[in-house]
Amino acid sequence: MLILHYGDHQPVMTRRIEAKLKLPLDGRRQFRTFYAIETLNDCADRIISGRGPDLDIAFLGTIALQQAGLPLDEIFATRASLIKHCGGAYFASSSERKRRFHRTLVNIGMIDVAPTARDQYFDIP
C-alpha cells in the first residue's frame, strides 16, 4: 500500500493571501505543494520514503505512479519527462514542449475547453 501525504492545494486562497500580505509575485506559489510517500507491507527498494522535493501539484500523480512502480500511459510518461524538463515549476514554466503537450491533450479530447454548465445557465460574458 502506498500512502501519499501532500499539502493542501488552494490557488485562489493563495492569491488572496499574497495580496493581503503584499508578498512579492511568485508564479509557483499557488501551485506548489509538499509531499511525502511511505508504504505499508512493501519490501521493494524502489520507494523513496519520506518527504520529496516541493513540486507543482500537476506532477504529484505522476510521482505517485512512478513510486508505486506502475506502468505509465503515454500521457503520464510525457508528464514524467516534463518533470526534468520544467523542473518543479510546471505551471510557471514557459516551456514550448509543455504547451505542445497541453495542445495535444486538448486536440485528443482529454481536456475539455468548452463552456462549463455554469456558463450555460448564467449570463456570463
Features:
single chain; 125 residues; alpha+beta; three-stranded antiparallel β-sheet; 40% helix; globular
Notes on the structure:
- It is built from five helices and five strands.
- It is α+β, with helices and mostly antiparallel strands and 125 residues long.
- It has one domain.
- It is globular.
- Helix 3 (74-86) packs antiparallel against helix 4.
What is the gist of this entry?
This protein has one domain (2-121). Helices cover 40% and strands 13% of the residues. It has helices at 11-21, 60-68, 74-86, 96-107, 117-121, and strands spanning 2-6, 32-33, 35-39, 50-51, 55-56.
Mean pLDDT: 79
Q: Which sequence of strands runs across the widest sheet?
A: 1-3-4
Largest sheet: 3 strands, antiparallel
The best one-word shape is globular
What percentage of amino acids are in beta strands? 5-15%
Whole-number total of structural domains: 1
Q: Count the beta strands.
A: 5
Structural class: alpha+beta
| Sequence of secondary-structure elements | EHEEEEHHHH
> Can you count the helices?
5
Helix content: 40-55%
Rg calc: 17 Å
N- to C-terminal distance: 47 Å
Report low-confidence residues grouped into runs of 5 or more. none
